[in-house]
Design brief:
There is one protein chain. The chain is mostly helical and about 400 residues long. Helix content is about 60%, strand content about 5%. It is built from 16 helices and eight strands. It is elongated. This is Argininosuccinate lyase. One of its GO terms (biological process) is L-arginine biosynthetic process via ornithine.
Length: about 400
């Protein structure tokens, strides 16, 4: 297969396998976005007199058909293609002839793949935001069901202050909504159109209209100057993975609480059988595997962020092949978070607090008692604190 960069020299297949890596497989999730961007680019070329109307129709129809076939599983990007961009152009040219080769005028694989990636990230952010909000709503539902139940509030793993299911669930729900807002903020970087920046230095002597493709693809602004585009690589991705890490951190802490409450020593909660598994050797046990894996996958999210930042750190300006490696941790981080948020609401729907097992130590009201003394007697809080402390010592 002829590749977009092929200059006629033979290529060792080991080089192809090493340089392509998993890129061909990863690009399967970008095919629909690449097609959309390619059609917008072809329409701009036609508007600028660089592509005939007949060629535009052939390109648009051909790409739409190829995208539909990909969505139906009739073809996949394979190693022999190297990447999704080569696959699309090769399939298009085989289908419509020379017109398929004209769509690449005024762009490079660099701005082509980055445009598709940003279009994909817009949708991924929307889905992450919606699922994070859904997890918060599942906690709202839990608070409505059992919110009036008193719970001990802990500091330093000791009963410290009176709390409730409503306060406990509400705290996590609030933070998840804050995480959803953080995810939405990533769009500031994702909404910059890189299309037309080509390999990072534009397309000299071609009347390319970057504003036309920006509008067609509904980006907020053009990413300019063209030299800024490659410098931006990894920044939106790292920002998204940072926000994902915060989501996973919050749901990981939620899972940690529930697993603690599920121990025999606490027995504050019952977890649904459908979301726990049995032991292979101990008949009496039900294991909170879902919540354990939610907690464990916080490490995956953090590792994905560090990998992206490590790839980009200290790169010189312009495009470098290292940037291709961002896709693996980026997609993995997105998938881990989406999968976690997909299962969490259903798991929370089956959580039940056990009123008969929750007991508050009488000393948990000590701070409230000290505050009451301050109000009643007008004494300094430190004096009230000392008196309550001495009273508790005598018991």
């Amino acid at each position: 297969m002829t590749r977009l960069w092929d200059k006629g020299a033979p290529l060792d297949e080991r080089v192809l396998r090493y340089t392509a890596g998993d890129d061909h497989a990863l690009d399967n999730r970008l095919v629909a976005y690449d097609v959309r961007a390619s059609i917008a680019h072809a329409e701009m070329l036609n508007a600028r007199g660089l592509l005939s109307a007949d060629d535009l129709v052939a390109i648009r129809d051909g790409l739409n058909a190829i995208a539909a076939e990909h969505a139906q599983g009739q073809w996949q990007v394979l190693l022999e293609h190297e990447d999704g961009q080569t696959a699309l152009e090769s399939l298009l040219t085989a289908r419509i002839g020379e017109a398929g080769k004209r769509v690449h005028l005024g762009r490079s694989r660099n701005d082509q793949v980055l445009t598709a990636l940003r279009l994909y990230l817009r949708d991924a952010i929307d889905e992450l935001e919606a699922r994070t909000t859904a997890a918060a709503e599942a906690l709202d539902d839990l608070a409505k069901r059992e919110g009036d139940l008193a719970l001990p509030g802990y500091t330093h793993m000791q009963q410290a202050m009176p709390s409730s299911v409503a306060l406990w669930a509400g705290g996590f729900a609030t933070e998840l909504r804050d995480d959803a807002a953080g995810l939405a903020q990533v769009k500031r970087r994702v909404q910059k159109s890189p299309l037309g920046s080509a390999a990072g230095y534009g397309s000299p002597n071609l009347p390319i209209d970057r504003e036309e493709t920006r509008k067609r693809l509904e980006f907020a602004v053009i990413h300019e100057p063209v030299t800024a585009v490659q410098l931006s690589r990894g920044k939106a991705e790292a920002q998204l993975l940072f926000e994902i890490a915060l989501v996973m951190q919050d749901v990981g802490r939620l899972a940690s609480d529930l697993m603690l409450f599920y121990t025999q020593e606490f027995s504050f909660v019952e977890l649904p059988d459908a979301f726990t598994t049995g032991s292979s050797i101990m008949p009496q046990k039900r294991n909170p595997d879902v919540f354990e894996l939610i907690r464990g996958r916080t490490a995956t999210a953090q590792a994905c962020l560090l990998e992206v930042m490590g790839i980009v750190a200290k790169l010189p300006s312009g495009y470098q092949r290292d940037l291709q490696l961002i896709k693996v941790p980026l997609f993995r981080g997105i998938d881990v978070c989406l999968d976690t948020l997909a299962i969490l609401p259903a798991a929370l729907a089956g959580v039940r607090f056990r009123r008969d097992r929750i007991h508050l130590d009488p000393s948990i009201h000590a701070a409230a008692e000290a505050n009451e003394l301050v109000v009643k007697e007008g004494i300094p809080f430190r004096e009230a604190y000392r008196r309550v402390g001495e009273k508790l010592k005598k018991k």
